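From the shared-data thread, chain only:
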Amino acid sequence: MQRPHALLLDFDGLLADYDHRIHLRQLADAAGCAPEQVDAALRTDGLEFAHARGELDGEQLLQALNQRLDSELIAAHWHAARLAATRLRSDCMAVLERVHSDVKVAVLTNNGLLTQPVIEQLLGSRRVLCSAALGVRKPDPAAYLAACAALGCAPERSLFVDHLFRNVQGAREAGLHADTAFHAQSLRRLLKRNHCLG
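Structure, as C-alpha cells:
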C-alpha cells in the first residue's frame, strides 16, 4: 500500500503492558476490601464492559462500585490504580518517534472514560480514542470506522495495528489495512513495510 494517512495502534499489549491484578489490588486497598470483591463487583452485570462501551460514564461506574463495595472510591483512586498497573514499552514508543510527520498517529483502545486520562498522561501528545467515547468496542467494524471518522481519514488509507488477531480481522472488515504486532521488532518491520518510517 501507499503510505497511510492514519496509523491506529492498540495500547495494552502493544504499546504498554497492563497487569489487571495490580489494578484490582490497588482499588481494593483504596476501598478497604479484597481484590476478589472488586473483581466481582466489576464483573457483575457486565459493569466494566458497560463502562468501556460508554454506557456508563466514570461517575456512574464509581457510584455502582461504591454501592456494591460500601466504599468511597473516587476517580483519583482509579487513575492511580491504572497507572500502577501499566508500564509503557519505551522501545515501541521509540519506533513511533520515527513515523513520518504526515501520518496521523492515534491509539484505539477498548477502555472507559476513567482510564482515558491515564493513557493520555502516559502517551503525552498522542491522540487517544477510547471505545467509550466512540460508543463501540473492537473488534466491531464500526469501532474502526468511527476512529477513522474522528481522524478525518478514509479507512482504505488507514493502517491499524493490534496484538490480537480478532481485532485485526474487525479492522479489515471495516476496510482498513491491518496486521498484528507483538513487540518493538515486529512493529518496526510492519511500519517499515507500509512506508511509515523515516
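DSSP finds eleven helices and seven strands in the chain.
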